[in-house]
Amino acid sequence: MQIGIVGLPYSGKSTLFQTITKTLLDPNELTKSEALQAVIKVPDERLDKLTEMFNPKKNVNATIEVVDVVGLQKGDSGSTQFTGNFLAKVKTNDALVQVVRLFSNDAVPHPDGSINMMRDINSFETEFIISDMALIEKRLENIKKQIMKTNDEKLKREVPLLEKCLELLQNETPLREHEFTRDEMLILKTYQLLSIKPMLVALNFDETQINNAEKHLDELVKKKLGYNTKTLCFFGKIEMEMAELSENDAKVFMADYGITESALDGLIRASYDLLGLQSFFTVGEDECRAWTIKKGMTAQEAAGEIHSDFFKKFIRAEVVSYDDYVELGSFVKAKEAGKWRLEGKDYVVKDGDIISVRHS
Q1: CATH 3.10.20.30: does it fit domain 296-359?
Q2: Which of 134, 155, 308, 342 has its CA 20 to 30 A from that of 188?
Q3: Strand partners, 96
Q4: Is the CA virtual torsion 265, 271, 276, 282 positive or negative?
Q5: Model confidence pTM above 0.85
Q6: With bands split at pLDDT 50, 70 and 90, how would you rate the model's confidence at 41?
Q7: What's the pLDDT at 81?
Q8: Does residue 228 surpass a pLDDT of 90?
């Protein structure tokens, strides 16, 4: 899973990237034209507990790839320009985090001259919608020409879907706010549309605004949030200071400011919720590992995440929930209590399941 961080200049997007990846960059690095990328471990106390119980040779957290998307430029009028280079880089991400600046700093003025949450959010939405409209209009034109030549039934079925998308966009509705079917999403995924990507809006405050953060979140929820959009708030300046502290010191630091969740924890929680993700575990003396899958995946599909051969040669899955295993302390006791069970290929995996795959 790849998450792209976007935002207007001086919004704090690179600050968010640095804090969640624990990568403190030289200021010169932030001016480079190439996107910054990093893979972050997904913290999971359940995996920590299982590692403590099994004492394996290694433990492996689930991971997320994060990209600090670059390419926005300042136009002659001083406003931000959304370049083709920037939009092309956004297309490759599975989901987006838009960092929106709520803090004031006279030394680093906002590129548009003032702090305005909805204006900044809508500037991205408008560009994404325009880009998607151009792509769909061109695709529809090409499809209709091909249908006249070939009478292709598959292409004919694509036309009403694209026309529905075009109507939504013409009404200034991002495609993510419409709930498409699974089959429709499989078609639309090939186009790498921008306004359909799940969006996490991250409001960046300074330390003087901690008590007002919830008010801005509530305002955003009322005005903006729809299907496939989530929010979080973070405090960029404080997070940068915490990045240089030990884990225990950082917790004390957060408590002093009344912050209950770090930017990293908040981003992962919101991203999993936004993308409909969950974790299951494989355990043993060699390795304890967390695996990330989509909610609703079957045991056979989850087995395929471990190894493609496991999907093809799947027989059964041995399953016990994390809570039951930790309470009972062993597979033997879980079996005795009736909490360990054999499941077939159609079993829908639950968050926290511990799974061992039987295969041919």
Answers
A1: yes
A2: 308
A3: 4, 199
A4: negative
A5: yes
A6: very high
A7: 76
A8: no
